[in-house]
UniProtKB/TrEMBL annotation, chains A, B:
It is found in: Cytoplasm. NCBIfam families: plsX. This is Phosphate acyltransferase. The keyword Transferase applies. The lineage of its organism: Bacteria, Pseudomonadati, Pseudomonadota, Betaproteobacteria, Burkholderiales. Keywords: Acyltransferase, Cytoplasm, Lipid biosynthesis, Lipid metabolism, Phospholipid biosynthesis, Phospholipid metabolism, Transferase. Pathway: Lipid metabolism; phospholipid metabolism. GO terms for molecular function: phosphate:acyl-[acyl carrier protein] acyltransferase activity. It comes from Oryzisolibacter propanilivorax. HAMAP family: PlsX. One of its GO terms (biological process) is phospholipid biosynthetic process.
Amino acid sequence: MGGDHGPDVTLVACRQFLDAHPEAQLLLVGQPERLQALVHPRAQHVPATEVVAMDDAVEVALRKKRDSSMRVAIAQVKDGRAQAAVSAGNTGALMAIARYLLKTLDGIDRPAIATQIPNARGGATTVLDLGANVDCTAEHLLQFAVMGSALVSVLNDDPQPSVGLLNIGEEAIKGSEEIKRAGELLRTAAASGDLNFVGNVEGNDIFKGTADIVVCDGFVGNVALKTIEGLASMIGGFLKEEFSRNLLTKAAAVVAYPVLSALKRRMDHRRYNGAALLGLRGLVFKSHGSADALAFEQALTRAYDAARNNLLERVRARVAHAAPLLATADASLTAPGAASAPL
Amino acid sequence: MGGDHGPDVTLVACRQFLDAHPEAQLLLVGQPERLQALVHPRAQHVPATEVVAMDDAVEVALRKKRDSSMRVAIAQVKDGRAQAAVSAGNTGALMAIARYLLKTLDGIDRPAIATQIPNARGGATTVLDLGANVDCTAEHLLQFAVMGSALVSVLNDDPQPSVGLLNIGEEAIKGSEEIKRAGELLRTAAASGDLNFVGNVEGNDIFKGTADIVVCDGFVGNVALKTIEGLASMIGGFLKEEFSRNLLTKAAAVVAYPVLSALKRRMDHRRYNGAALLGLRGLVFKSHGSADALAFEQALTRAYDAARNNLLERVRARVAHAAPLLATADASLTAPGAASAPL
């Protein structure tokens, strides 16, 4: 039901997805009359009377709209009827409801949102957190690194993808106290084989593809993502404007069309639509609200692949493997008290 | 002496600048033999035996290299022989030396680095801080807003430019506690006429031009700036690659050349080269290290215009005008203690 376009887009995407994946099954959750547009032998309708609006406060979505399509969809995951939930709706509400219904994995304090950004190497850099957590401790950043590694190991079929810590310089002495401490924790994790940590990276490294995974707090990640969207949109607008300036430039656009479409394809963020909500006891994926059918289908495919490749178990196993480290990290928060106890 | 290219670029830029500004005078500070390339009636050579390297630690630049060109240049400002200093060198060293020699203005705890980023409106958005301060309190962000307003009032000849607070949502309830508190301080400043505060802005608003000035802490600002550089460079690389793929695309590049150069001109960050170090008792401008002669000349022009338009006095006056507010803000740091005193 969610996103800027609702079922007009999501149901079209669902049909394409079902056609492309003959073994897949969908539970379509929403207002029954809106779901009539897609009747399919592998698509079951699950009724929900309410819809979380894009501008609903988290509290409203969580406490008032108890029969929202978002909540009912996540309940399907909780009850084992679905292996993953996908939504194009209100991100804050989705995270809050998912966290409330599914709970976090042992060893994870805060779930994170991970998305992929196309890089110059022709692949994509996975960045987390994208806005779920505004104030992060070093321990949270370590948890993000562990969860991100699990996600990318599934996406790229690479058992030990590289992790960079987003900072304002490559040197270990750069950044805030919390970032420096995160660097220490990540180096410890790398030494014990839990992570492939490559050190500090900077904003431009997201596009260079210096590390498979870039870890940052949700405030910084969200600003970076929105900045990227803003610049890409401005450049797109400039190109359109310059090529439509007069007859000559319009002719140039026709000649340059194949090149411009190749460029557009390479920059197409729709190919990477479908951000993972990591750290929960169930799989939830968030599509961009403005997604078209192609982009939303991509988010569905991403969730399907994650479920088939046991992403949830992989995250759980990685977190469990790193548990001694995560526990140490947790203890360090109360270290002064703990240290004085034996006295 | 500084930057990636040293005097080979800076002296060429100096000559262009002198030609374009018949009343301007330059003090060229550096190793005498390197300065011989520019002999000009309005350019005086000021010897300095040492050079701060781009990778020198701040401590080395500040304590060991006491006769560096950077330090001698800033000393010219301190002693009133120059109205502004411009450097393409090591940013951290420049800030540290400038702060040490010039000191901060009354009411300013921390100087900030402000740069301009081209926006879709055809103008530029001024963003600060860009990396001088990694952990900022709400009071620091308020100080940045006041200093940024003074800078832009000079640059745009607009007495009350608009200020936005970089956040992860437009609603006042978004962001960390510190950001929310900064929003409150900025609203108070707006109510008392000290600022034209337009509320929270997001990363994409930098390019939309929603506010003339965008205020953020140095960590976030630096990540945003580097992210922008990274994306712009990747898109540039993609364009070059796609247009040189084969004979057909190369022909398309020839046809599209005027359009592509128009685009390049609009995106040309060299036009905005020259970041201001604000909050000091003297004018210091930082050129991008990779600046070419055109870009470095731009930084010189920026410093020259700032000096002619009394930027220093304008910043001082604005900070003084906002002093009661800045003082209130300072007091709020110790408010709990102060509040209990009367009891």
